[in-house]
Design brief:
Shape: globular
CATH superfamily: P-loop containing nucleotide triphosphate hydrolases
Radius of gyration: 17 Å
CATH class: Alpha Beta
Distance between the termini: 11 Å
Number of domains: 1
Number of helices: 12
Bound molecules: adenosine-5'-diphosphate, magnesium ion
Structural class: alpha/beta
Strand order of the largest sheet: 3-4-2-5-1-6-7
Helix content: 40-55%
Order of helices and strands: EHEHHHEEHHEHEHEHHHH
CATH topology: Rossmann fold
CATH architecture: 3-Layer(aba) Sandwich
Length: 249
């Protein structure tokens, strides 16, 4: 099972959109996928059309040890999801005094192995929840918006992952960099893509996710891009990206 965390402490760069649509694309390509919403804002949960406030078991109950992982998984059109809820917003403080607080998610997921991919959507911070994702996974994908300041804050992110590698999880690696909201008409976008590619080399995915309004609309219908508009650029780009992900093995 490949376990991948989608991380960037900046908000609005495409973490949730990537997690949802890469998950859905991999499903279309016959892979078994588990998505985990680790953001207290529960955007991934809502974007998949699930009403977070009605749920009995979410990732919060899971981290607290109040339920087993199997009980927290919701199956939705072939995609499995462990949802989030607002309750999680107190978690950083609530769990801060617990010994082994960086490993709560990893421990809670110990019996879960019958998937090809586990994808974790992280909050826009490098706090305790993101640390839990970094100890649970082996791979980090970083979505970057192809705009001015795309790489700003990157040294902090890289330093955090280095520390985790030294102290908490020696297997963790940044393996994928995804350019999102690319607009080929903008010279600046092209320059930023070149910059990102120079910085990350072969870890940079060749597939660029173009700016596409359908990608922004789909969540308000509780749908993935493939359910909402299967013939959109967004659907094509995410399917290509999934093929690239599978090819990397
Ligand atoms: N390729 C894209 N084209 C157009 N809008 C996009 C694209 N990717 C993401 N968005 C929109 O940009 C906003 C931020 O994306 P999101 O995935 O929520 O970022 P994050 O999870 O990093 O905060 C959302 O409104 C989303 O619908
Ligand atoms: Mg998000």
């Amino acid at each position: 099972m490949k376990k991948i965390a989608f991380i960037n402490q900046k908000g609005g760069v495409g973490k949730t959109t990537c997690t949802m649509n890469i998950g859905a694309g991999l499903c279309i390509l016959a892979k078994k996928v588990l998505l985990i919403d680790l953001d207290p804002q529960a955007h991934l949960t809502y974007s998949l059309g699930i009403e977070a406030h009605n749920l009995e078991n979410t990732v919060y109950e899971l981290l607290k040890g109040n339920c087993k992982a199997q009980k927290a998984i919701i199956n939705r059109n072939g995609i499995d999801l462990i949802p989030s809820s607002l309750e999680l917003s107190g978690a950083e403080i609530e769990f801060s005094g617990i010994a082994g607080r960086e490993f709560l998610l990893k421990e809670a997921l110990e019996g879960i192995y019958h998937y090809d991919y586990m994808l974790i959507d992280c909050p826009p911070s490098l706090g305790l929840l993101t640390l839990n994702a970094l100890t649970t996974t082996q791979e980090v994908y970083i979505p970057l918006q192809t705009e001015f300041l795309a790489l700003q804050g990157m040294s902090k992110l890289l330093a955090t992952i280095d520390i985790v590698k030294k102290r908490l999880n020696k297997d963790i690696e940044i393996t994928g960099i995804i350019a999102t909201r690319f607009d080929h008409r903008k010279n600046l976008n092209k320059e930023v893509v070149e910059k990102i590619e120079n910085y990350f080399g072969s870890r940079f995915f060749k597939t660029l996710i173009r700016d596409n309004v359908s990608l922004a609309e789909a969540p308000s219908f509780g749908q993935t891009i493939f359910e909402y508009k299967a013939n959109s650029y967004g659907a094509k780009d995410y399917l290509n990206l999934c093929q690239e992900i599978i090819k990397r093995g």
